[in-house]
């Protein structure tokens, strides 16, 4: 049954109905699963997996039973995969949030004349946040519509309503995503971090919302207070940078004291955190700015001037390094982009309203949050600082602007830019490692009610054939064979994309089958303990397109120790890549990967130029705006 998402906002009277996320046919998913792994594992292992999968899928077998349960669940819930996915992707994960989970949006470098200038920027930014939040509270945000593949479908807006009213609470085994009621009065404050101190800025004083000049005045007072070394509190923000279980254990210790309990409660209910950073002392380039967003440079730099659990955390550095660090569980990068682009446009488009006269005398002094420490807590802080430092030392990051061409060139070839870039990433990986690996590309399923993402498995057999043609078989194959293989790879990738965005991806489905088997207390089916399934969920290449229309870029870390995180931002005339890996792995190097990517992109362009007559895209999936009728069976060209 379709669900009415919400009343359309005033002025947009069109009805707004989103279908539920479908449960794909069992056989389709199992067939696609086998196809997705056949070329990535040894023949012997494949044969073993094949027989396990066939047994799982046989008539009257475990697969059919679980599928039936999943179909029942899909009838009885708004979104059968939402909680499974949220737990699996985020809440059950135990790794530290910085680098491993929290993405960052890096704003253009600002040229502040002096410290006051950076505070004015922060005050203007906070004013923009309050304006944006008004749109959220009054449900006045325009509905998003899909672009690119299958353009024109309305998208679920739920994620926007979780930007400012959520908090990821650490748990010993599983975190909790706390959601406060939107517009709740308890939430009318933000937290300002400065020199590792946390201050409360009440946004409503004597029933009046602070004006920008008042916000600036409060920020100035906070900066002064932070400079007072006698009153300085220990850097408790560090604790949120730790592993989730470690932080949960520490939090249990902290809340035994009422002072700590109160400080935590205030932070956990704030709208957002604004981090006023000191100059980092690092040379300011794209890569260093991205690093400062992801981990703050560790405890010696800005790593403790953060509260990583809070989904929206704005950074304003005195040296012009600015951006947003996000706790990812409530929303996707695309929603973050929409919000931050609004803010950037607000900052440049509407002049700062700071006049000469201020009303500061009526404002109460800002409140510094206090912490009670013990030698035990001091020890925990030290341990968190050391673990963050290890993460900082380990992260190998390279932000690269590929300027030879951009998505317009790719479109001229009649190819999907996203598919083309994905193929180029596979080529780069093959060049570096001589094999392809399980790859994750996030695919939005926001065309469904409360849809988040599924996975596009980009390491397709067709792409393997292409990357071999460009490397091992380079001299033995003709250009026409190479271009044919490129088209096969692009078509396979585009088909996988369409399958994923229309709810026919295999990863969410397999996850659902696995989780429902545990809900009904079944012994874990062999298909999910099989080494192929386990390995195919270790995404050595974790990729995501996060396009922007204003100058900024997104970045995130790898999801496995021997992997790469690759976030890309295709622009008309250039492509921006943020590549991350860990120095601790001997199998990876971000610089080497970027070099291979650069070379491959140039070779792919040269190859396209040899064929001046592009072949038609052979996607046979019907292009309709109704996702529910799409891709029941895909013709994998
Ligand atoms: N010939 C010419 N142009 C083509 C084409 C073709 N064969 N195929 C696509 N194009 C055009 C599209 O019309 C579109 O044009 P536009 O720039 O004018 O809008 C453009 O190329 C981009 O399309 P494409 O590259 O195919 O990608 P997409 O926009 O459909 O995006 C995904 C594909 C998978 C990235 C997208 O569906 C998605 O899911 N995005 C969300 C990812 C996400 O969640 N990221 C954040 C994770 S935290």
Explained architecture:
The model is unreliable at 1-14 and 618-637 (pLDDT under 50). It is globular and about 75 Å long. The protein has helices spanning 26-38, 43-57, 62-76, 82-91, 115-137, 212-227, 244-254, 258-268, 286-295, 333-349, 375-394, 407-412, 417-433, 461-470, 479-501, 507-519, 526-529, 531-536, 590-610, and strands at residues 3-4, 17-18, 104-106, 166-169, 176-179, 189-194, 197-202, 204-205, 208-209, 273-277, 312-317, 322-326, 367-368, 395-402, 439-444, 453-456, 541-545, 553-555, 564-570, 575-582. By secondary structure, the protein is α+β, with helices and mostly antiparallel strands. Strand 15 (439-444) and strand 16 form a beta hairpin. Helix 1 packs antiparallel against helix 2. The two termini are 33 Å apart. 49% of the residues are buried. An 8-stranded mixed β-sheet has the order 13-7-6-10-11-12-3-18, with helices on both faces. Strands 14-20-19-17-15-16 form a 6-stranded mixed β-sheet. It has a two-stranded antiparallel ribbon with strand order 1-2. The chain binds coenzyme A (COA).
